[in-house]
Amino acid sequence: MLAAQKGSNAYQYQQQEYYTREQQQELNQYPKVKSKTKVKKISKLKMILSVLICFSIAFGIMLRYVAITEANNKVSSYKRQLSQLQRANEQMQVELDRSIDLKKVEEIAKSKLGMRRPEKYQMVYVELKKNDYAEIVNEQAHDSGRHGNFANILGVIHNVLEYLY
Predict the structure, then answer these.
(1) Please, are residues 109 and 115 in contact by the beta-carbon 8 Å criterion?
(2) What residues make up the domain containing 76?
């Protein structure tokens, strides 16, 4: 694109505005721009407020992180307590298993409960026949609705992978 098409190459002179006395009086009636000291005070106040807002946001974020850290500490403390209680439970179970004496159990059964050992005529022997057989379970049900070349290709890939693993 040519430079002449972008705009005018003519010099632009600043146009001076000439006001009549009436227009000049109207302009003087409007309040003047705030003095520089007021502008500086307002800018300082805005800066202070923005810094305070930033600090308050940072403080709030720090409080949340502190709360999260305390919660994590409580959770880890509870996990330690749980593992200690589980170990104590396991030790008590082992002690309980060791403390059971079959002779004492038999003695209590005879004396307190009036039980006695079965005699030969009360015993019945049962023969259990163990059949040796195996059951083949098909893990994947075949869809009768699957038809087409793509389904056949997937079936072949599945069979190969099943064979390999």
Answers:
(1) yes
(2) 34-120
- Tell me whether residue 126 is in a domain: no
Half-sphere exposure of 72 (CA within 13 A, CB side): 6
The Cα 36–Cα 91 span in angstroms is: 82
* CB contact set of 110 (below 8 Å; sequence gap of 6+): 116
How far is 21 from 17, CA to CA, in rounded Å? 13
Number of domains observed in the structure of the chain = 1
67: its two tokens: 């709360």
1 within some domain: no
Give the integer Cα–Cα distance in Å for 94 and 88: 10
Establish if 6 belongs to a structural domain.
no
In tens, the pLDDT along 133-147 reads 776 776 555 555 556
Tell me whether residue 105 is in a domain: yes
Average pLDDT, the chain: 81
Q: Which of 78-92, 110-124, 132-146 has the highest mean pLDDT?
A: 78-92
Q: Which residues of 81-101 are buried (b: 16+ CB within 10 A; e: fewer)?
A: eeeeeeeeeeeeeeeeeeeee
Does the pTM surpass 0.85? The reply is: no
User: What is the band of 55 on the pLDDT scale with cuts at 50, 70, 90?
Assistant: very high
Number of other CB atoms surrounding residue 109 within 10 Å: 13
